[in-house]
Amino acid sequence: MIIPLHAETGGCSTAPVLRERGQREVFCGLTGIVWLHRKIQDAFFLVVGSRTCAHLIQSAAGVMIFAEPRFATAIIDERDLAGLADAQEELDRVVTRLLERRGDIRTLFLVGSCPSEVIKLDLSRAAQRLSTRFSPQVRVLNYSGSGIETTFTQGEDACLASLVPGLPRTAGAATSLVVVGALADVVEDQLARLMAQIGIPQVSFLPARRSDAMPAVGPGTCYLLAQPFLADTARSLESRGARRIAAPFPLGAEGTTLWLKAAAAAFEIDPAHVDQVTAAARGRAEAALSRVRPALAGKRIFFFPDSQLELPLARFLSRELGMVLTEVGTPYLHREHMAEELALLPGGTVLSEGQHVERQLDRCREQRPDIVVCGLGLANPLEAEGLTTKWAIELVFSPIHGYEQAGDLAELFARPLLRRQLLAA
After folding, report:
1. How far apart are CA 137 and CA 7, in angstroms?
2. CATH of span 11-25+285-424
3. CA gap 46, 63 in Å, rounded
4. Burial class (CB in 10 A: 0-12, 13-18, 19+), 41
5. Strands (DSSP E) along 282-410, which ranges?
């Protein structure tokens, strides 16, 4: 069951979508570990992969080699690839040594990679075996972070979906709200305070900061997506009887207000009360945006598909900062989850789904936008051609949700333009 939000009609709700299929340029789902290992404070992420996987995570996380992060890589080497070693026995040995050394671990994720999938290593069987062995102190789960068929934010989706079957079940028909998607702790705290002031009962977050604080889910649960790339997690929650609250995503002053009003409406709370509670925070957000708007208004922006954040970002930049959307590409367009965002986009926006990087590069070069949002692999070549770029991955790593972060989010787009002006001076 979907709880509807009465959004504006029109926009791009029925707009045609250019579906691209071809060469892609993306990070793999292992990248999600970079923010997930900081969020779930008693979890550990063990990647079963190659040295390349280890270098990717180490570089992306920026963690020094002698630090004690909550992730590591079990290296698949030539003996494993040649079948000279029993990979399951080797994995058991690595996990046992890890848990003996790190007694603070309560949830261990075995994260599949391209190499582990190529050699058909069954990590689900390993997780079941190890979970039985180390229960109840440690729960062992598995998910795939392989980049063969996924984009990098889908690593978080796979991780959260793996948590759902083990979540506690709600007792009876009591109604509660679960906010779904990893948020920076400061953002989570801000949104939790606003929801408490609005009067929304029993608000919890998935993922929680500790394994023993994961939310209970059942037929009396409503859930509200905070991130747009969680299709598998949403499907898993609905299989437990949870109901999705349809809403735009909480980016910018407008998006955050509509998101909170959608949650309030599900609990029959007057939207005027939401306006009253959020007035001060909304005012601060609008003031912060007004300072950045002159630098962005009228500027043309092109989105390459990367994170699935593209549509909410495009709506924010267009409606609240006056930017002109030349093309909005996204790896996957989930029309149900994006219905409210599509309705708020300006009519005539060019939308594309999937990637054929050469064709998209040709269109971008032809349009010569003022700023291009793209992956790291495209940014430097486009900069060399005289285009101004914004790294898409920075928008995932940075706290950008909610009222207090609206000005910071706008600044992320203004800074590359300012840098270009300074270099040209």
Report:
1. 47
2. 3.40.50.1980
3. 15
4. middle
5. 300-303, 324-330, 351-355, 371-374, 389-391
Lowest mean pLDDT among 255-259, 290-294, 392-396: 392-396
Residue 84 has pLDDT above 50, yes or no: no
Backbone dihedral angles phi then psi of residue 243, each to the nearest 5 degrees: -115, 135
What tokens were used for 235? 């499907």
Q: Which two tokens stand for residue 354?
A: 């999937």
Quickly tell me which residue has 């495209």 as its tokens: 378
Alpha helix (H) residue ranges in 164-220:
185-198
Rounded Cα distance, 371 and 317, in Å = 12
Tokens of 23: 């060469």
The two domains 11-25+285-424 and 29-150 share their CATH topology (first three levels equal): yes
What CA–CA distances, in Å, run from 218 to 54, 175, 224?
A: 38, 9, 14
pTM over cut 0.90:
yes
CA distance 152 to 376: 13
Task: Report yes or no: 333 and 355 within 8 Å, Cβ to Cβ.
Answer: no
Cβ atoms within 10 Å of 201's Cβ, excluding its own = 11
**Tokens found for residue 257:** 């207000």
| Distance in angstroms (rounded) separating the CA atoms of residues 74 and 55 | 12
Helix (H, G, I), strand (E, B) or coil at 23: coil
Beta strand pairing call for 351-355 and 371-374: unpaired
The token pair that represents 285 in the structure block: 């957000």
Measured distance CA(31)–CA(54) in Å, rounded: 11
Model confidence at 50: pLDDT above 60: yes
**Identity at 22, one-letter amino acid code:** G
As its CATH architecture, domain 176-274 has 3-Layer(aba) Sandwich (3.40)
Q: Does the CA dihedral 147-413-261-403 come out positive or negative?
A: positive
Q: Which has the higher per-residue pLDDT, 117 or 174?
A: 117
Which two structure tokens, joined as six digits, stand for 398?
A: 């940075």
Rg, the chain, Cα only? 22
Confidence band of 88 (pLDDT split at 50, 70, 90): confident
